[in-house]
Amino acid sequence: MTKTIDPIAIPQPELHAYLLSAVAPRPICFASTIDKEGNVNLSPFSFFNVFSSNPPIMIFSPARSGRDNSLKHTHINVKEVPEVVINIVNYPIVEQMSLSSTAYDKGVNEFVKAGLTQVASEKVKPPRVGEAPVAFECSVTEVIELADTPGSGNLILAKVELIHINEKYLTDDKLDTTKLDLVGRMGGSWYTRSSGDSLFEIPKPIRTKGIGVDALPENIRNSSVLTGNNLGRLGNVEELPTLTEIEKVADHEDIKDLTKKSELHKIAKEVLEAGHTKQALSILMHAEKFN
Ligand SMILES: Cc1cc2nc3c(=O)[nH]c(=O)nc-3n(C[C@H](O)[C@H](O)[C@H](O)COP(=O)(O)O)c2cc1C
């Protein structure tokens, strides 16, 4: 059964909840801005991403309040002083980031309320968060206001002018995903953490051209043992195994006495999930001979 929703037929807060629970996890832009009097503001926004590396452009969206249609201080500030520091949020600062989202009065400095360190920027006026693993000093190139109704977004286009990286998150001069422990915003009050078992790798099909799931033999595509993820990985091979490769695998002591297709598929799945794609595919092709 599928529930189908027309976005204009439901109240805005309900729509907001569906959108934010489904489009997740979202990275968090911890934005530092100043107003024309020089008052500092720091607030998190998860309507955020990087959209280009040449030029380096990030976009985030402080929306109009769904309750009273008011504008976020961050939105007002970047129109007064078109600069922002986008600080990246990781697990060690997630609670302080959340605290800074409190609706304090205009002019209140959330660095102070959240107990975070203000470090002077080099190219822009707003300071950066000393505790952030990475901070991007940006100029604001454009503000796109989508509508003037409650909940409507305001896209802030920010061009990266300078990048600060805490060196403890580098390995061989590259940002190390296993050290960063980044957090993402989910629906409601849920967050996700990018560490330990939640991290996994998939070989990038950049320089390779996989044969595709459609090119796998039918018995493999229709296997009751293999999952969609298994098929996706198998479809990433550039060619089917040769007869010699299949015969070699068939000779292996764990395989040679097996004569049931489902048993062979189970072994192939284990071999595949251990990272040996071509070998797994050879076992699956060998299994074609049996019922
Ligand atoms: C993790 C997180 C993500 C948020 N993302 C957004 C967002 O994308 N857009 C938005 O308008 N408010 C977002 N909020 C709420 C704002 O941070 C909150 O309204 C804040 O008070 C705005 O501050 P300002 O008025 O000082 O700019 C988010 C809050 C949290 C905790």
TrEMBL record:
GO terms for molecular function: oxidoreductase activity. Coiled coil: none annotated. It is an enzyme of class 1 (oxidoreductase). InterPro entries: Flavin_Rdtase-like_dom, Split_barrel_FMN-bd. Its EC number is 1.5.1.-. Keywords: Flavoprotein, FMN, Oxidoreductase. The keyword Oxidoreductase applies. Its cofactor is FMN. The keyword Oxidoreductase applies. Belongs to the flavoredoxin family. This is Flavin reductase family protein. The lineage of its organism: Bacteria, Pseudomonadati, Bacteroidota, Flavobacteriia, Flavobacteriales.
